[in-house]
Specification:
Length: about 210
Amino acid sequence: MKFPAATSVVFFFGVGRAKNFSFHPKTIWHTKRSLKPTVHSLLVKTMCSAAVFAALLPLAIATPFPSVGPTVPGNRARLRFGLACAPANAPVVVKRAIWAANQLRSKPYRFAGGHASFLDRGYDCSGTISYMLGGAGLIGSPMSSSDLRGFGQSGRGKWITVYARNGHTFAVIAGLRLDTTPWDNSTEHWAPRWQTTNRMPFGFEARHPVGL
């Protein structure tokens, strides 16, 4: 391939200052050829990295619930320093419900918290119970306390019982009560937490997941 002669170009830098530069087309052509593989390689790597990130991001967002957690022997859950230990004999669904609820023990009470999404800064009663049920894979989106009156089947369950009425809901999972109200101690603030005391479910409808 034939190339024209080198070209001389004059650049002016400010007033009264000039600099002469020579460019040879052959040199420019070889430079472009040498850059192509590098640019192409970087582009491919960038696209691959973006594709991997895009594939992993939905998984991280879609699975906020734990799949492992503390356990204790037997059929009843135990509370240790505010953290619930799932009974070893319970079905995996029940264990996941307990481990999910453990994630809320440091969250504040927030009116309508956890209604729009399982992930929120704070939770109210139905947001708390919805998070627990969502962690167990029993529901796909949050439910209000009124909606929970029609959840699952009527009556108390073997492992999980949801007590719901218009305006409030709580649950008993493997012997531990998950509640947001200071029903047994009026000096405490409202917040999602485990309780070891019983609550008389007057005015509540008892519901339970099918088979549990």
